[in-house]
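Hey team,

Filing this mostly as a record. A colleague (T.K.) asked me to run one chain through the structure pipeline before their review meeting, and I want the input and output archived in the tracker in case anyone asks later how it was produced. No errors, nothing strange. Just documentation.

Input sequence:
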Amino acid sequence: MKLQINSGTQIEEVQKEFSKVYPFLKIDFFKKPHAENQLSQSKDRINPENKISEEGKFIKAESIDISRHLTVAELEMDFFNKFGIALQVSRKSGNIWIETSLTDDWTLEMQNNQGEELSTYNSVSSMEEELDTREWV
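Output structure:
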């Protein structure tokens, strides 16, 4: 699977297309890459309405590989090398998103599967807790 990016592509378009393939992952874009095993700085976050060509070093239309066997680190590096914009993957865990900086060596498929498992488990746990706290007549 590849994402096509041209001079008119908005960041939010890339985010939506990525999330269609990986519903338990999301990507955010930053002006600077994060250090290994570190979180991205929120002050460096790029507005999703901006075009990729406005933020980085856009030279020509490119495609970005988002195949399931690709690691998060490989995706982040490829995007930065092609467009000069840092990308950060986050994984869903119940109702929150957790940056994957400690597990950047996992594949996108592994990350998405883990997000699904954590979200499904958390949803079931929440339902069970709700049932446990109801008054039964």
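Quick notes for T.K.: The beta strands are 2-5, 25-30, 62-65, 86-93, 96-99. The chain is about 40% helix and 20% strand.
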